[in-house]
Request: fold
Amino acid sequence: MNILEVENLQVRYRVGRRRVEAVRGIDLSVPRGGIVALVGESGSGKSSVSQALIRRLAANGEIVGGSVCFDGQDLLKLPMKRMRSIRGGAIGFVPQDPNSSLNPTLRIGEQLVEGLRLHLRLGREEAAERAVRILGDVGLSHPEARARQYPHELSGGMKQRVLIGMAWSCDPQLVIADEPTSALDVTVQRLVLDQMQQLASDRGTAVLMVTHDLGVAADRAEQVVVMRHGEVVDAGPTSAVLHAPTHEYTRDLVAAAPGLNSVRLSASAPSSAQAEPPHPLLEIRDLRKTFSLRRPGAAPEPFTAVDGVSLTVPAGRTVALVGESGSGKTTTARMAARIGTADSGSVLLDGRDVTTLTGDPLRQLRRDVQVVYQNPFGSLDPRLSVARIIAEPLRAFGIGGRREQQRTALELLDSVQLAQTLADRRPAELSGGQRQRVAIARALALSPRLLVLDEPVSALDVSVQQQVLQLLVDLKAERGVGYLFITHDFGVVRQIADEVVVMRQGRVVEQGPAERLLGTPDHEYTRALLEAVPGAAAR
Amino acid sequence: MTKLLRPTTIVSLLVVLLCLVMAFAPQLIAPGDPLAGTPRDRLLPPSAEHLFGTDSLGRDVFTRVVHGAWLSLAAATAAVLIGGVVGGAIGLLCGAARGRVGTAIDFVVMRFVDVLIAVPGILLALIVVATLGFGPWSIALGVGLGAAGSFARIMRAQVLRVRGEEYVEAAAVLGVRPLGVLGRHILPNAARPVLAMAALELGTAVLSVSAISFLGFGVAPPAPEWGALVSSGRDYIATSWWLTVLPGAVIVGVVLAVTRLARVIGEAR
Reply:
């Protein structure tokens, strides 16, 4: 018996005068007490589905056909008033971003009480007691104290637990979780997902989990539905769909998913570079950086973001700098690339101390050291064409004439596997993966010897991520560039790193060759991080 | 696109086009001589022959309004250009200097700008006119300097916003020289709101220029100018309403049309 039966659901959006079909007739069912994962890349329509189920589409969206049968009644035909009582009551919802989903001006307890009083018609006192019990149920310590706190006093993981508690507060029969953990670190993600699974099995709640992460789906779901371009391409029990994929698209997705796939990427073409013993290209010695944290009503507190970090990037090698958010990995990378200044310690390039360079000598350093940023939407000037963006470093250093620069730009487009016809486009007309390739092409324009890549693939879909990583591996083999690769994702580390440095709270906890560190980690923190990577069930 | 097809927008566009014709080719609309009067026809009310009537010297008011467009509009445009360029430059430099070498410079200059904004624009323009002598170009300078403060503030705020964008940092990390970053990345991305404001400011400038001319600091008497026309009709307001009301209505119409278009341009972005 299924709690939710979706038949031929169609959703479309009005964009200007055009109509965009986001969901083209999908069928979906969730059994009572079962966990179903709805998987797809961005633009596949999976979020439109989850919003359409509870009739909370964006203002320009409309449901044009199909039926959503929940517990025997068609939700699409119910009057709005009935619908409101079902939302939050019989159907709970866990939103994507815990940081913007709680009202910052209300205490945690008050926000839980609101739903309880509305749906269960509890009295004020009773609801308050129940709220505290719910906070305890989702694993928060000191639930009485938490209920009196404001959202900003809680961490992201704690807030997501509160939201999970909220979704389960009125004993729902179904909970829809839209990317419930994509804003969280892996270790926190694991705890939050454990909590959700626990609640679902204790209370017999059905869960529809919308996610882009195949690893999460493989670990947690009993059934998987794979969406692409608004259609269901594959569906069935998790073991059948993900472990032995039959559909071509699913197979590609599984192959690209870093959590599921531990295969190291190798260069497509055999390396032309000689196997010379790598010399240290970049050396960082005992780098420190302290910020002062200002809190209202308190004296500024010093906060040590990076505390004595040393590492070496050999020429032509990939060193992955791994850590969770707040570990100081980005701050370290920015100092290594000489974007930020260090409080103490030194940065050596080819044995030359570049820690204190300023003005023109620092500018000349850019011929050797280039940076690729995390967000391909922010790092390209929206007003320039792709060709001009790529040629910009050449222009800045006066290399070649205008025509020659244009030609180099086109060659670089080739080498990052983008069509030359894109040269006249502007960044807004490109997809995320294309933009990140443009950013890589730009960074390569000066033939630098070191690239600092700050989470270069974390904003991209898995299949695109795979292509960009392959590109990076190929370029390394071709040009002998050294990479300092910042990431939070061990799946990515497995695919490309030669050496791994694990950071936590501003310190290096462990470093060593990738094979050893990923196989037999010494430090328990590294082990915990590795175990938390979703997709363990599939490996 | 639909915004451009609204009736008010179309009317505004027609009014502005008419203004341009009046400024550059007044002969097309009013072939007569704005300075020649026929004493016999003094103070005639509006009629088919004299659309806006005639003044105390028997000159056709319509002809004088059409021929006065050039001075009024040119002075207003010059005022906006002066204000935009001077204010924009100050804002750009202050925004760029802040946090690097020139936090102190930024502080001092922006406090000066605060004073500039605090002083009423008309008063500031009158001070400039009184110092440099009467005439449309000193009015333009005065009105322009009065607007420069607001331009500087907007430009500075935009520069500070754009400076925080990742592509600006990326450009510096690519090895682009600081001045190159300023000219190639910061200025083009910061200039849009400033341009929208310039369009908006044009309507205000037409009004300010006319107001100061009305007070008698503008062109020397026989030459036609909108503010001066309203002013000279003041003595006859009890008997000949058309001398003040009709040129005044033209000023109001032009200001409304320009402001309306500026808003459409601003919204379209």
Chain B touches chain A at residues 165-167, 169-171, 173-177, 180, 184-185, 188-189 (CB under 8 Å). Chain B has a mean pLDDT of 86. The domain at 8-23+56-268 of chain B is CATH 1.10.3720.10 (MetI-like fold).
